[in-house]
Amino acid sequence: MNSPNDPVFNRRAHALSGRGCNDCDRSLPYEATIADARAEILKEVGEGNTRTSAVTVALADDQHILWSEAFGSIDRSLSIAPTTETLFCIASCSKVIAAVAVMILVDRGVIELDAPVVRYLPDFRMADGESYRDITVRMLLNHSSGLHGTHFRNILTIVPVFGYAAHFQDALAAERLKHPPGEMAVYCSDGFTLIELVVAAVTGQAYTQFVQKEILEPLGMNHSRFTLEEFESGSFAPGLDAEGRPEPQEYVNTYASGLFSTASDMGRLAMMFLNGGRLGDTRILSVEAIAEMGRDQTLNLPLNPITDHPVHFGLGWDGVRQGGLDAVGVTAWYKAGDADHYHSFFIVAPGERLAVAVLLTNDVGIGSVAGLLAERILLNALAERGSIAKFPSPPEAAAPPAVPSTAEDLDAIAGIYVSSYGPRRLDPMPDGTLTLSNFVSGEWQPSIEGFRLRQDGCFVPDDHPEIAYRLVVAAGRRYLAARRPGGLGHYDMEFPDSHDLPPQPLSARWQSRVGRRWLVVDDPFSAFLALRRQSPLFSLVQVEGLDGYLAASLTSAGFDLVQVVDPVESDDRARMCLKIPIDNGWGLNDLVIEVRDGEEWVRWGSIRYRPVATVPALERTGGTVTVGHEGLGEWRRLPAASSITYEGATVWYLYNSAFALMKWGLGKGAVGKVDAGTYLLLHGAPDTTITLTVEP
Q: Which residues pair with 52 in a beta bridge?
């Protein structure tokens, strides 16, 4: 039981006493739903469970915010609880707002959805011929543009970095598309970054100003803010460190994917959708615009090999058939948002005139319960009022009966399959089963054994009947289709997991680069680096059995991220080579070798890396470090234990010999005592000098 001094207990008491939300309908018509949700959330943030630090939730109908409450802590060291006015980053849930901004301009006749982007951004260029000119505004909103996925440089930082969208457009001039525009839909934040520029171009206002004036203010979303400046301490939910203390504020510089908001504000946005584009006497969108946003945009795309999943992109929406609601016959639109430790989930059921928003913070890399909570709340609400017969229960997991498999059956599906999350391998076994292995830390490691052929044509292991794979052949590729229980487990979803790659030769030049390591030089204010989410190292590895390809390797949130590239075209460029709709073909990049002063540097997407092997040693007495005209970071290796002070740097990072971050800082000051073999990364303004003083 929570004590009276527990911030969770106090937050809960505030909500029960009617002080949780000024906008709430006090009648609380969904008492059983709310009680169940509270119990589930308290499990997540309660004593003994520190994975999720803070949660806020709102349930709304078309007239009222029925319930809003906040739980957990935004500073465990001082026992500070969130309130319903505490800001959370809603991350990609902001894409719904970006789509609303565009549809406002469509309603006004200023933008045409199917007009090419170059009509509004005439200086938009890409490097691979003229196909980029076929990208339409609609394609930016429904993830079918062919842009890479996410431009990571300066996307999430420890200080605000302005001009991210314009810098992204400049970077596109040297990039190519990963697929022809309109060929398939695969999740793509880059499209929404260009939406910022389109809105600004046709309105003469900054995207943030337009959204504030035309959406946030008219809807009374008075707490919602972009990270244009430092927030007041205690006004937002930060990440918490191992001692429960707040981490620094994170600035999301892609504003179409990075609004900070509250669950109650999201409830007001939902009410606009539930009322066909209007809230009270204020009309934001036409009924037709709302309907178009909620229409399945993936139906007629050429490459769509597997369709039994809830990711049927709308305009801004992740899906217009949320799986948990669709399984009980209810149409619902939904959007998920994830940024570092922030997670959000937003569901609008227009026919039922109900919506829910769940926002939370938790430990990085553990996944999120936001979607499960949102699905649970709406299903309980529908059952409580009688719209569905009962809250759905997951069926007992049972694999279909096994059938004998032939060598041909096994050989047809066996092999290496690749997605943007790395390679996996299915190996035939002498007993007629398959073993699944994943490529981890540079080697194949068995994951699940005993996949047997079943009557439905899928391979399912006896010990994990909830997991199924089958082969789908499309566009000349073998796709591995994966089936899993979705959401709360009462429905299954199948999605394209990965596809094979044909063997090919690998040049001696590329082979010579395998195993080399490089260090990041041009992401100075990265929150991923400063908050220890990501290593500064980049390396090239070979995947055993995947002949003729290389894998770019990074470590992020404790996980090895391995992305396969195709180097057959030339000895200085390895191409992204996957075509997987929905999610598993997300975030692809070309790898480019750049020769600088006789050294081979790497450009991976938008970020550059220098060789580890040639990092110069710092002089024993210090001296000066000159930052070049590009403003790239300068690395130095410390040959002896010493104490360092510096002047002229904007930000610095100190790593041990294994490149684990020890400390970092902004502006001039002292690094302090460091051991021999450590590495120092210094950033400063272009064409400036950083002065270092070194003492034994």
A: 362
Strand blocks (E) in 149-271: 156-157, 251-252, 259-261
Instruction: Provide the pLDDT for residue 4.
Output: 28
* DSSP string for residues in 418-473: EETTEEEEEEE-TTS-EEEEEEETTEEEEEEEEEEEBTTS-EEESS-TT-EEEEEE
- Predicted local confidence at residue 266, as pLDDT: 98
Tokens 């839909």 identify what position?
185
CA-closest candidate to residue 585, choices 497, 458, 688, 487: 497
Alpha helices, DSSP H, located in 385-474? 407-413
Amino acid identity, position 595: V
Both tokens of 83, joined, read 């309130």
Asked whether the beta carbons of 316 and 93 are under 8 A apart, the reply is no
For residue range 626-663, list pLDDT tens digits in order. Answer: 999 999 999 999 988 889 998 999 999 999 999 999 99
Please enumerate in sequence order all residues whose Cβ is within 8 A of that of 438, keeping only pairs 6 or more positions apart, or say none: 422, 423, 424, 425, 444, 445, 447
Handedness of CA 171, 173, 177, 183 (dihedral sign): positive
Give me the DSSP letters along 487-518: TTTTEEEEEEEEE--------HHHHTTTT-EE
Please answer whether residues 325 and 347 qualify as being in contact, where contact means their C-beta atoms are separated by less than 8 angstroms. yes
Predicted confidence at residue 540, as pLDDT, reads 96
Residue pair 653/644 in contact by the 8 Å Cβ criterion: no
- In DSSP terms, 575 is beta-bridged to 566
Please give the biggest Cα pair distance in the chain.
Answer: 77
pLDDT, tens digit (0-9, with 9 covering 90-100), for 190-213:
999 999 999 999 999 999 999 999
pLDDT at 16 over 70: no
**Among candidate residues 124, 94, 109, 133, the one with its CA nearest the CA of residue 212:** 94
How high does pLDDT run on average in the chain?
93
**Distinct helix (H) and strand (E) counts, the chain:** 15, 35
Residue 270: both structure tokens together:
């939902």
Q: Taking the model in full, what pTM does it have?
A: 0.94
- pLDDT of 516 > 80? The answer is yes
Rounded to whole angstroms, the Cα distance separating 24 from 61 reads 11
Do 59 and 34 form a contact (C-beta atoms < 8 A)?
Answer: yes
**CA nearest neighbour of 581 among 442, 689, 481:** 481
CA separation for the pair 488, 490 (Å, rounded): 6
* 170 band by pLDDT with thresholds 50, 70 and 90: very high
Helix 94-107, helix 190-203: angle, nearest 10: 40
Q: Are 347 and 333 in contact (CB under 8 A)?
A: yes
550: tokens are 């290389």
d(CA 297, CA 293): 9
- Position 135, amino acid: I
Q: Confidence band (pLDDT; 50, 70, 90) for 51? A: confident
- The number of residues making up the chain comes to 696
> What's the rounded Cα separation, in Å, for the pair 66 and 350?
16
Q: Phi-psi bin for 47: left (phi > 0), alpha (psi -120 to 50), beta?
A: beta
pLDDT at 674: 87
Residue 262 confidence (pLDDT): 98
- Nearest Cα neighbor of 227 from 169, 166, 159, 165 is 159
> Residue 580 in contact with residue 498, Cβ under 8 Å?
yes
CA end-to-end distance (rounded Å), the chain: 55
Spatial CA neighbour of 347 closest among 359, 360, 333, 329:
333
Paired tokens of 588: 């692809």
- Under the banding of pLDDT at 50, 70 and 90, the label for residue 307 is confident
With residue 381 as reference, give the H or E element that holds it.
Answer: helix 370-384
**How is the beta sheet containing 642-647 ordered, strand by strand?**
622-626, 689-695, 642-647, 669-674
